[in-house]
Write a structure and sequence with these properties.
- The protein is 32% helix and 20% strand.
- The protein has a nine-stranded parallel beta sheet with strand order 12-11-10-9-8-18-15-14-13, with helices on one face.
- The mean pLDDT is 96.
- It is globular, with a radius of gyration of 27 Å.
- The chain is an alpha/beta fold.
- It catalyses: Hydrolysis of terminal non-reducing beta-D-galactose residues in beta-D-galactosides.
- Its EC number is 3.2.1.23.
- This is beta-galactosidase.
Length: 839
Amino acid sequence: MNIFIVTDGTALPLDRQQLVCRMRNAVAGADSVFAIGCEVIGLDEFPTLSLAEGDIVIVYGACAQDADCLYGIADCCERSDARLALATKLPVFRTDVPDVAYPTAIDMVVRDVARERRLHVLDLFAYAMSWYMREYESERTQLLEPVEGGRRFSAAASPMVTSFIARWLVRRYFSRRHIADRLYGASMYPEMWSEETNDEDMNHARDIGMNAVRIGEFFWSRLEPEEGHYDMAYLEGLLDRYRARGLKVVLGIPTPTPPRWFTLAYPQSCIVNADGLVMQHGSRQHVCTNNPDYRRKAYQLTRRIGEVASRYPNVVAIQLDNEFKCHVDMCFCETCRRLWPQWLQSKYGDIEALNAAWGTSIWSERYDSFADVVMPEATPFAHNSSLDYAFRTFTADTLTQFASGLAQILVEATSIPLTHNTSTNFNLRNYDLFDQLDIVGFDTYPNSLTPWMFPMNLGLWRNLIPNDDVLLLETCASHVGYTGNYMLPHPTGFLETEVFLGYASGLKSFLYWLYRGQKYGVEQPHSAVMTAAGTPDIGYDDVLESQRLLSRQLPFLEETEVARSSVAMVYSDEARRAYNVESGGIYNFKTMVTDYYHALSSRGVDPELIPENADFTQYRCVLMPFVRNVSVRLLDKCRQYVAQGGKLIFGPMTGDRTADMTWNTADGNGLGELGAWMGVDDVVQYLSADPRTEAVVTVGDAHDALGGLVTMFRAERSLEYMTVTSDVAAGRTAVARHDGAVYIGGIPAQADGSAFWDALVAHDIAPFDDDRAFVQTGGAVLKFRRDNERHADFHIANMGGEAACIEVVKPATDIDGAGIAPGTLELAPFACVLLRFAK
């Protein structure tokens, strides 16, 4: 195996011999690796390179600025089964700006190409920045040399940089980043309780069958009670006590809660909202993650936590922060004001390119420089949609930069898998975030009124990165709640369906928030395993029953692997941002996706949720709703997929906006190149919500209506089984077909009882669902499949409060080995059943 570093001569302090030595030591004993070499080559030499399967190519320097060049290298590596990583640039550290350095256009191109092609990013920029910010000047000067504009790493930094790159390569390509055991436990907050209470909770958790706890994401003040004075003995003592009881630990990095001493010393670090109001200490996430003082202290603390954690084998994962962007999305502080024009320049290059893309001739918005571009602060009316969308993307990108800095520190300090607890609620670029981590983690708090939200999350997060291990880091035993919002508890038995489906889907952890209820603060009404008084809470019996159910399910889990559905729907973080900009006053992206998923699952199709950069060829049918911008490369991928026999369903509102949230008028049809390919033109959009003007659907003798924003057009070919008409869009339809692709310009406001959905699923989706050859479900009955060479196992749960029926197509056996004949099988409310079919 060879490592090829493709560069244009940009300085990279790397000792190739030491890199090879460290790599050999790290992979010693691996049967597939018998020799490792390392070469540095120029971009002009790459076309003549003879790549072999398993080789690693790293592209670094100015040659990474050309996106087409990177795509060409990616194609070449793919043909050779070589592995490709794109590296961001080591910065020149400046002393004239508080932020030290800014990402460049090269770094932005690297991330864009890596995101689209599902490549790893070797984030040398974040690594260097996290090192610089956490070290004192006396340490920095030993490894830096002066250059024009500032300082950069000198040759003296070579051992440090080489060691980091070696550790990164081993983590990304040679170590199995997984959790060995299935974890069942809860979050604990030992900083809130006495030693005696903590001992009681640790012992009781162990005694009821839990094997894991999650701690630490908020206790910064316990580890650094005064600036620069650390008490890591507190953390060591906790980890010792959990280890003594056989409890594994998911350890949090407590950066969401800077102590009071921090906000007193650095008041300029606090978040400023669009109205100019400064967030105050007293909650969490009140500090801007872009602030250099905050980053410095966060990076220093993270390094110390990583060093401690590396000594404890019972620490099975480290969680960065807690629910990034949970409470505050955009910030308008002075730091963000400095970073914003730098980000714009990296993205657009020239101010005239920005003016053209945003159409700033409207309302005299034209800008003469990037420094002139305003942030979307309070204004009499709405801001330009392009500006709003760009600033939200800037916010997500800079958050990723902060998180990547935390990650590189931990890569350097430990080999423990890294994760974060994300959610569908937050403005993130999840692929970029988790590319720098190891295992996807998420939080979800489903309710029994919309139970399909839970399997939707399971189907989403297991497909984000190529790692089947997924961690559910927070969910409730009964109900969520805080002092401003009381919520309904789960009905008895509902929790068991979550646990049963969760582990079947591939979860490696199911952790309750929280173990002992909060006695203080705003989340006192939230359910827990035990109340604040130490007695069983409402969901306690279901927690125990779920553990017993898991013990019966476990043998089947251990002898099978996750088997994905043959049907998938695209979930887009970019689309989520788009609907925050253009909601029309009616749209919430999470609700839209959940309702769309329910329209499918209630008709027996339980799809995977995949990002735009996924390999569509792994599925027989792909649905792409709500993706406002379909790039040229994404459209090319769609065309190739259909040409290879795939079924593709676009819409609603897919392809109707550009990457800058403007009308897509390319090819003169309002849907750009997608519309041209689908054979549609004369495109209009309007709100279908009034019986006098709604878009009417006719399917045989049945009638339906599209709701929300509908896209109507003239189509070369419509759907044979459905017509859509509208008085205000006369002569147009909302459905079109082109070969194996379908475009739907709208969907009904309600999925239940919808003739539109019945027909679409029956004709263009269900025939591509391979699972229907074994079992057919619907309503509130959800399922996940696991396979081995001999069996196909379906883990099925009725998540509804009423009895339901499923159709067993082939002979099967249940969890106890009893035979199940083909035919109708009735499931009681919240019943869980495992059906094993012979292949």
